[in-house]
Design a protein that fits this description.
By secondary structure, the chain is α+β, with helices and mostly antiparallel strands. The chain folds into 3 domains: 253 residues, no CATH class; 79 residues, Immunoglobulins (Immunoglobulin-like, Sandwich); 165 residues, no CATH class. Helices cover 16% and strands 36% of the residues. It has 7 helices and 33 strands. Strands 22, 23, 24, 25, 26, 27, 28, 29, 30, 31, 32 and 33 form a 12-stranded mixed sheet that branches. A hairpin with a 5-residue loop joins strand 11 and strand 12. The protein is globular and about 90 Å long.
Length: 538
C-alpha cells in the first residue's frame, strides 16, 4: 500500500522556542495534523520557505534518528543518542526542516502551513587564528570523526590551535545539522565572552580539554577529558543562550555550572586480591588532592595528589583486620565537595560449587560512558559470560559467546597470572586450530552462539597466584569479534576500562573455598561444551 503524500499546507513547527544564528542554518522539527507518526516515504525531500522580503528558498526535510549502534571501542565516540540523516526508513524518525539562510538574515520564515519566528543569536566573530596550544594527533584526544553533532568540537579545537576544522561528517542532512550546532555553540561562547573573557575561555577549555596519559610503555599521549555527557552539554548550552538572562546573568549561570560539576573523573580498573586499581583523570590546570577511605577500614583517609591535566592510575591496598584483608570492597573518594563511591567487591572472589560466574563481557569505556554512568555491556545478541568450576577433580573454565550469524571471526584470549608476568596465554577461536599447550579445549557452535570448555592444568594455576596476604589465581579473558567491514568489537571480563588501556583487566579468584570431597560441578553433566544449562539468556 502506497503512503499518502503529506500536504504542504499541513506543515507546522514543533519547536516553540526556536533558536538560530543570524544568517546561519535554521533547523527545527516539523509535523502535520493528526496523531499518526510520520511515514518518511510519504514526505518530500524538499519544500519552499518564504522570507520576509518575499524571497523563496528551498528547505530540506531531513530526519532525526537514533545514532548508529557503537560496535568498536573508542574513547571519544559520541554519546549523543540521536543524529540527523537525509533518508531513513525508521518509522519513529522525526522530520527536521533545515535551510541555509542568507547572510545576516533575522526575520520570520514562512511555511505553507504557517510562519515561524526564531529567536536570533548574534553571529560569532570570525574564527581566531592565534595559536594557543599545540595540535594533537592521538585519536583518543580528537572528537568523534563520524557523528555530525560532535563536529562543533572540531571547530572549537581548530580555533584554539589556529587551524581549519575538517569538513562536517555525514550526508547532506547531517552536515547542515553539524554546521547549525557549531554556529550556536560559537555564538553562545561569544555571548559569555562579552561578559567575561575568562569564563568564556574556561568554557572552551571544558569543551575541548585533554589530559596526558603515561601508559605501560612510558610513552605519554593525550586523551580527551572534555564534557561528553549529552545531557550535560544540553544543559550547559541552554544556560549560555537563555533568553531570560542578560549576558552577565548567562555568564554567571555558566560559571556556576562549571564550578558545580566535577571535572575529575574516576573509574575502577582492576581488582588484584588485596590490591585494587582505579584511574583518575584530572583535566584541571591545577593539581587536585584525592582523599580515599575504605568503608571498612581506617577512618583516616589516605590523601594523594593528581597532577594537572593528567590521567593517573592509583593502586591501593585493601584494609587489614586481624592480619588479613577485609572483605569490604567499597572505597569512597573525595575531591573538594565531590564524593564518589567505587565498588571493587570482595577480596579474591571465592569459587564455590556448582561453579561461579567470573563476569560478563564488557565493551571498552568511552568518555561519555564514564560521565553518564551508562552501561558498557554489548547488546545481548553479542553478549557473553564465563564461569569457573571444578569437575571430576580438575578446574575448568566455561565460556559462552553470543554472536551474529554473519560474524567473520570470533575468538577469546585467556591469560593466567598478572599482565606483567603471565604464566600462560591461550587464544581460542570459534573454529580453527588451537595451540592449547597442556590445556584441554572443547568447543561447540550453534546458530546464535558458541561455547568452549577449557580444562586448566594444575601447574598453570599453581604459578598464576597474584597477591601476598590473600593470594588467588589471576585470570584475564578478552574477546575479539570480527563483524566485517573493518569493525572488530573487543570486550573483556571484569571492570569496563578504556580502549587505550594496555591490557584487559586481571581478576583474582580464590580456589581454596571449593570443598574437598565429592562436591563437583554438574553444570555440564557428562557431555562436552554443547551440554548443560545456559549461563546467559538467549
Amino acid at each position: 500500500m502506497l503512503a499518502t503524500a503529506v500536504s504542504a499546507a499541513d506543515y507546522r513547527s514543533l519547536d516553540p522556542a526556536l533558536v538560530a544564528v543570524e544568517g546561519g542554518v535554521l533547523v527545527f522539527p516539523i509535523g502535520v495534523e493528526g496523531d499518526a507518526p510520520p511515514d518518511p516515504e510519504s514526505w518530500p525531500s524538499e519544500i519552499p520557505v518564504v522570507l520576509d522580503d518575499g524571497r523563496e528558498l528551498p528547505a530540506r526535510i531531513d530526519w532525526l534518528v537514533r545514532s548508529p549502534e557503537v560496535r568498536s571501542g573508542s574513547w571519544t565516540v559520541s554519546g549523543e543518542p540521536f543524529t540527523i540523516v537525509d533518508r531513513t526508513r525508521e518509522p519513529d524518525a522525526l522530520p527536521m526542516l533545515q535551510v541555509q539562510l542568507p547572510r545576516g538574515y533575522r526575520g520570520d520564515v514562512g511555511l505553507a502551513g504557517g510562519t515561524v519566528s526564531p529567536r536570533w543569536l548574534r553571529p560569532p566573530p570570525p574564527v581566531r587564528r592565534s595559536v594557543q596550544v599545540a595540535a594533537v594527533d592521538s585519536a583518543d584526544a580528537l572528537p568523534d570523526p563520524e557523528h555530525p553533532l560532535e563536529w562543533f568540537r572540531w571547530v572549537l579545537l581548530a580555533e584554539r590551535i589556529g587551524d581549519r576544522p575538517p569538513p562536517p561528517p555525514g550526508d547532506a542532512g547531517g552536515q547542515l545539522a553539524a554546521r547549525h550546532l557549531a554556529e550556536v555553540w560559537r555564538s553562545a561562547i561569544a555571548r559569555i565572552e562579552r561578559a567575561s573573557p575568562g569564563v568564556a575561555e574556561e568554557l572552551r577549555q571544558r569543551l575541548t580539554a585533554t589530559c596526558t596519559l603515561v601508559d605501560g610503555s612510558g610513552t605519554p599521549r593525550e586523551v580527551a577529558a572534555w564534557v561528553a555527557d549529552p545531557q550535560d552539554l544540553r544543559t550547559l548550552l541552554s544556560i549560555a543562550i537563555d533568553a531570560e538572562r542578560d549576558d552577565a546573568a548567562a555568564m554567571q549561570g555558566v560559571l556556576s555550572w562549571l564550578r558545580r560539576e566535577p571535572q575529575v573523573m574516576l573509574w575502577p580498573e582492576e581488582v588484584r586480591g588485596e590490591e585494587v586499581v582505579f584511574t583518575a583523570a584530572n583535566p584541571e590546570p591545577s593539581e587536585v588532592v584525592l582523599r580515599c577511605r575504605w568503608l571498612e577500614g581506617d577512618p583516616v583517609p589516605l590523601a594523594m595528589v593528581v597532577p594537572p591535566r593528567t590521567v593517573q592510575r592509583v593502586v591501593l591496598q585493601r584494609p587489614v583486620r586481624d592480619g588479613v584483608s577485609s572483605d569490604g570492597g567499597v572505597l569512597f573518594v573525595e575531591h573538594g565537595v565531590h564524593r564518589r563511591r567505587l565498588e571493587f567487591g570482595d577480596r579474591p572472589a571465592a569459587i564455590r560449587p556448582p561453579g561461579t560466574s567470573v563476569g560478563r563481557f564488557q565493551r571498552p569505556l568511552s568518555l561519555a560512558d564514564v560521565q553518564s554512568g551508562r552501561s558498557a555491556s554489548p547488546p545481548p545478541s553479542r553478549g557473553g559470560a564465563a564461569e569457573l568450576r571444578r569437575r571430576q577433580g580438575r578446574w575448568e573454565l566455561f565460556i559462552e559467546c553470543f554472536r551474529p550469524a554473519d560474524a567473520r571471526r570470533d575468538e577469546v584470549a585467556i591469560r593466567l597470572g598478572e599482565a606483567s608476568r603471565p604464566v600462560a596465554r591461550l587464544t581460542i577461536p570459534e573454529t580453527g586450530a588451537v595451540a592449547s599447550g597442556e590445556a584441554e579445549v572443547h568447543r561447540a557452535s550453534h546458530a546464535d552462539r558458541w561455547r568452549c570448555r577449557v580444562v586448566l592444568p594444575e601447574a598453570w594455576l599453581a604459578e598464576a597466584l597474584v597477591g601476598t596476604r590473600a593470594p588467588g589465581v589471576g585470570l584475564s579473558i578478552e574477546r575479539r569479534l570480527d563483524l566485517g567491514g573493518g569493525t572488530v568489537e573487543r570486550t573483556a571480563i571484569g571492570p569496563a576500562i578504556p580502549a587505550w588501556c594496555e591490557h584487559p583487566p586481571t581478576e583474582v579468584h580464590d580456589l581454596s573455598r571449593w570443598p574437598r570431597g565429592p562436591a563437583e560441578s554438574t553444570t555440564l553433566g557428562g557431555g562436552e561444551a554443547t551440554a548443560g544449562r545456559r549461563i546467559l539468556a538467549p
